[in-house]
Amino acid sequence: QYSLIKDVVSSLKRHRMHEQQFTHHPLLVLSNFGLQQIQVKLMASMFQNMFPSINVHRVNLNSIKRCLLISYNTETQLLDLRHYSVKVVPVGVSKGLKKLLQEKFPNMSRLEDISELL
């Protein structure tokens, strides 16, 4: 079973598709591949070799725009693939400062100075 990208995009309220998402490889997450069966090990190795490995000490978190989750169901022996878009959002700051950090410039015409926004 699969879904076409046009069906996925049309079902979303706010879709985020831009070319910068595909300039870097996705973060690969494998679930339930720890079994000792040779075919499961082979599948895990194949998926790991499809994408370059990530050095967790040197990776720039802003460069990770996608996450690919591959889950293996041991009962049905089926794979579930989920492809997520990742967005870094500031947390714990005021609404005005959040807009500035996301490079969205709010309307400040009714403000006297920037301290009112912050």
Automatic annotation (TrEMBL):
Gene Ontology terms: biological process: ribosomal large subunit assembly; rRNA processing
GO molecular function: rRNA binding
UniProt xrefs under InterPro entries: Brix (IPR007109), PPAN-like (IPR045112)
Location(s), subcellular: Nucleus, Nucleolus
PROSITE patterns for the chain: BRIX
GO cellular component, one term: preribosome, large subunit precursor
Domain spans labelled Brix: 1-118
Any Pfam family matching the protein: Brix
Alphabetized PANTHER family for the sequence: PETER PAN-RELATED, SUPPRESSOR OF SWI4 1 HOMOLOG
Name by which UniProt lists this protein: SSF1 protein
Natural source organism: Cochlearius cochlearius
Lineage, highest ranks first: Eukaryota, Metazoa, Chordata, Craniata, Vertebrata
Gene name as annotated: Ppan
